[in-house]
Amino acid sequence: MNRLAQLKAPAMDDPDCSARFVLNGVEAIADPCGVLVLPELGMLVVSDLHLEKGAAFARRGQLLPPYDTLATLRILEAAIDRHDPKIVVSLGDNFHDSVGSALLPSLFRDRIAAMARGREWIWINGNHDPDGTSDLPGISADEIIFGGLTFRHEPSLIAGKGEISGHLHPCATVRRREKSVRRPCFATDGQRLLMPAFGVMTGGLDLRHRAFTGLFDRAELVAHLLGRDRVYSVRFANLLG
């Protein structure tokens, strides 16, 4: 699915196209474009932007189409315009490698600065970019605790209550019209939440993969799958294996 075409769907302005749930006592909204909105906190959360992935591959001699950063930022701009958050939290792997932030072209740097103007912007450090960002608005941190929630890049097997994280790029598969459909998803059991990867060139890991073992109460686990113009909420037991 073309993520840019997704933005043009009229249903994106329909509140019924999003999924609403409660995470550790906090109201949460899963937007079809892949951002999480926390209205009580005035916060928009996004994960795994992997900006400059094409440039990172080019530096290693493997050429990919160089349009990923622009496409990802356009989708994020639309989400920020739609929800007008006071705080933006980006949950790590903001850039695809440790030098992507420092080498970011000025036209992309200016777009990020425009999005951040008048807002708090928090960059969570990820495994791809552990040293934070360079010359960009906002602050960098390994994790933050705010409003009863913990924001970090990698999920913790020890302290999961109220955790919002990324890293694993969750996807889920369902059957639709006699075909199996695999989509990125938000995954939550009401206690913790795993975010879908937001970058347009990111892959995904099926929610039934062993990497997710022990993270959720599977009896309560729901996958909120990103469709073309809405979110589809499916209980874990109803997903295809």
UniProtKB/TrEMBL annotation:
Enzyme Commission number(s) from the entry: 3.1.-.-
Sample GO molecular function, one term: ligase activity
UniProt keyword list: Endonuclease, Hydrolase, Ligase, Nuclease
Domain Calcineurin-like phosphoesterase: 44-137
Superkingdom field: Bacteria
Keyword Hydrolase: yes
InterPro entries attached to this UniProt entry: Calcineurin-like_PHP, Metallo-depent_PP-like, PdeM-like, Pesterase_MJ0037-like
Keyword Secreted attached: no
PANTHER family: BLR1149 PROTEIN (PTHR39323:SF1)
Annotated protein name in UniProt: Ligase-associated DNA damage response endonuclease PdeM
Organism per entry: Ciceribacter sichuanensis
Gene giving rise to this polypeptide: pdeM
